[in-house]
Each structure stands twice: as structure tokens, then as C-alpha cells.
Amino acid sequence: MATLLLLQARGQLRAADLARELEVSVATARRDLAALSSAGIPVYAQPGRGGGWALLGGARTDLTGLTAAETQALFLLAGPASSGSPALASALRKVVRALPSTFRTDAESAAAAVVLDPASWGEREPDRPDLVAALQRAVVSRRQVELDYRTRSGEQIQRLVDPWGLVDKAGLWYLIAGTAGGKRTFRVDRIARATLTEHPAERTDDFDLADSWRQVVEEVEEQRSLTTATVVVETRWLFALRGQFGRHFEVLETVDDKTMVRLAAPTPLMIAQPLAGWGRLIEVVDSDAVRTELARLGAELVEHNGEGS
Known about the structure:
CATH topology of the largest domain: SH3 type barrels
Radius of gyration: 27 Å
Helix content: 40-55%
Oligomer: single chain
Number of domains: 4
């Protein structure tokens, strides 16, 4: 892709120039050019001092038909995946350099606009593809966004933010943005409306979305791990329990058909609440505080829903 784009954009290239652009050896560049020719692409070499490689008769492929929107879509898809693949990251860098200059900035922004975090926090949001797409456009175009946002306490607020990046955390989307009070993280499922403005967004050149998200995760994990409890559950139900507690779920030991698991949450009540629905399927073995909360929740259920209530 990068070789074709460069040939189409510049008309003619020496193998040495191509090698420098793509960070490969001259021999590799020549092999790639020969492979294109063998594959039926009308690439040919002009010998002599002013020669080089070119597309026969100014031939063009569909690759240069990429529009700005299509280029952004390509890099929005490939960019997040490249964080776990050095080869893909290298390929994207090469393709970016080969793109028409007017496309490069948006392509680079699109590639860095989203981070994928596969570890769940035990919850998912309803799909909001239109809203996510609008926020992606704001990140790539570096335009400020007006948000109608519901806080954790339920308060409805309006914020003008500088969108810096999006995170897909196992289906739960987050927006990292700059505000008058500094960097903030917004849950996308709490955004009722996002309106793109014409005002340019501010962002430092050294901002790294992946590093910023790691800091967020570390802070949240520290808050969520203040209380632990060890429980025993039938092994066949591990998937359901893991779905409730996400990364705060650690398998300790499996004996026969029972598994011992360590759970974590900010408070004993936040462990007890999801466990209350398990009834006798769960046994808490080491936390008096969680057992006390379970007993209290059980008494409340009996009082409000038991016979004669």
C-alpha cells in the first residue's frame, strides 16, 4: 500500500528513496517493487542516471481513490489494534508517510483516537454508535464539544470540553477530555447529547492516550480494591461471577467442582450487593464485614418481601 501510494503521489522513485521512506533495506525495496510488477501492477524501472521506478503511463490504482473520510475510517479501525502489534504499527507509520499531505494529520489523529481495553469492570452500556462516531469526529478534527452529562450522583451538567481520545473498555466507552479544571474522564453512556462546535480544541503535542488511560485505570483500581472477600462457588458458575466483578476477580484454587475466588470492591456493601442474589450458591469464607452486610440485606428482603409483610 505504502509503495503504491508513494509511486502515485510522486510519479517516480529510486529504490534508495523508497527504502528510506519505508525504513527498509534497498534490497527489500527492490524486491517489493519487483513483486508488484510480478503481481500485474504496471510498475517498471527506468535505467540511467535520472531513472527510477514509476507506474507505466501514469497508471493509478483504486488505492489513491481513498477519500479523507475513508482514510480516517481505515485508521480508526487499524489504529487501536496496532497497540498490540508492532508490525501493524510499523505498517501504519509507513502508510501515513505515503498518504497525500492533506490526509496525513487526520490519519495520524484517527490512528491515535481510540484505545481498546479488553478487561471489563463488570458492566456494559447500551450501544451508542452514533454518539461514539460523533465523538471520534471531534477527536480527529480537534474541535471542542458541548456535553449534556449526568454525573454519578445523577446531577445533570453542561460542559465544554476538548476531546482528546476515546477508550473502548470491553464495550463500555469513555471519553478523555480537557476541561477548565484539567483532564477529566466521562462515561459515554452518561452523555445525553454531544454537540460539535467550530472552536478548535487544545491538546499538548506530547499527550499519549494509552498512557493517560493507564493512569485512569490505576486510580480506579486502587479505589475499587479497598475491600476483599474470599468466596467459594461451584466451578460451573465462575463465568457469571466473573461477569459481575470483572478484573476484581481472582481464582485462587479449584478442588473437585468448587472454586475459591477472591473478590474486591471499594466497600463490603459493594461486594455483598451482587452476591445477595446468589443465595446458597455462594459461601463467604473470610470476611465478617461482607457476611454482616449480606445478613443485613437478607433481613431487609425478608422484612419487605416475606410472608405477612
